[in-house]
Amino acid sequence: MSRPPFCMPPAGVRARRLATRRGEFAVLDAEPAGTPVGTVLLVPGYTGSKEDFIALLAPLAASGFRAVAVDGRGQYESLGATGRGAYRLGALAEDVLAQAEALENGRVHLVGHSLGGLICRGAVLRAVAADRPSPFASLTLIGSGPGRVARWQRWKVRALSVCLPVLGTGGVWRVCYRQVEPGDVGAFLYRRWLANTPAQLLATGRTLRHEPDRVARLAAAGLPIHVVSGERDGAWPVPLLDRMAVQLGARRTVIKGAEHSPNAEQPAATAAALLDFWTGR
Question: In this protein, which residues make up the domain named AB hydrolase-1 (predicted)?
Fold first, then answer.
């Protein structure tokens, strides 16, 4: 799981609920002092939450962008739903479309980390397939690849899917982590893990294990795309992300000193890379 550098919203960042046509979602919302030059929607990955982007929000707002990080359905502080069907990629992609529409600030720069990147890609393709106006100005994929995760990661997710129904979230934590580490961030990681809806973890884990390569379809959508990663990544190998970026005709940024979660591990460099992309620098 991603580990944010801190978990309390900084000055200027509001924790609130975002009302959409598909229900309410917990968000962290950072608005600039004046009229926004753009709006950003940030979608977290597997076992993650809106706090995975918490260190990006103030820098993005300081540069004039409204930045909204969201908990997906069944993640941390967003309510879950009955049945795994609510957590299939198509349903979660429709949630992202509804979130973007609800922001009502023109077209949205969409950012997805890891599983969140697959969901965001699904939202873009869903809008294209339905022949509806796209609410997106661009798409940034952070530590997110062309399809299913690498073999070792598939094994880990499969093991979780076997253990979770038997042990529950609390039991899995005790097996994997044994105890809660001291400090606010440690307590937050434990609280977040227990709050995740098990059906969401099971269904999205299946997506990570089976999602096909949809790069050609995404390239045909014609959206400006940015592929960001750390120097190493255990979920999708960096050379695979390099090739995906070429196939997409995308901007490519490698964040030094980061691995799978540059948004949490090197937030200053990641925020600068995002701003450079959106402003054409």
Answer: 40-273
> Residue 274 corresponds to which tokens in the numbers above?
């995002």
Q: Among the residues of 132-183, which ranges form H helices?
A: 151-176
Q: Rounded CA gap, 210 and 264, in Å?
A: 26
Nearest CA to 225 among 147, 90, 112, 116?
Answer: 112
d(CA 274, CA 188): 26
Token pair for 259: 């691995």
Greatest C-alpha distance within the chain: 51
- Indicate the CATH number of 13-147+213-279 among 3.40.50.1820, 3.40.30.80, 3.90.76.10, 2.60.40.10: 3.40.50.1820
- Residue 109 corresponds to which tokens in the numbers above? 């720069």
Tokens 């999708």 locate to 236
pLDDT digits (tens, 9 = 90+) for 256-281: 999 999 999 999 999 999 999 999 87
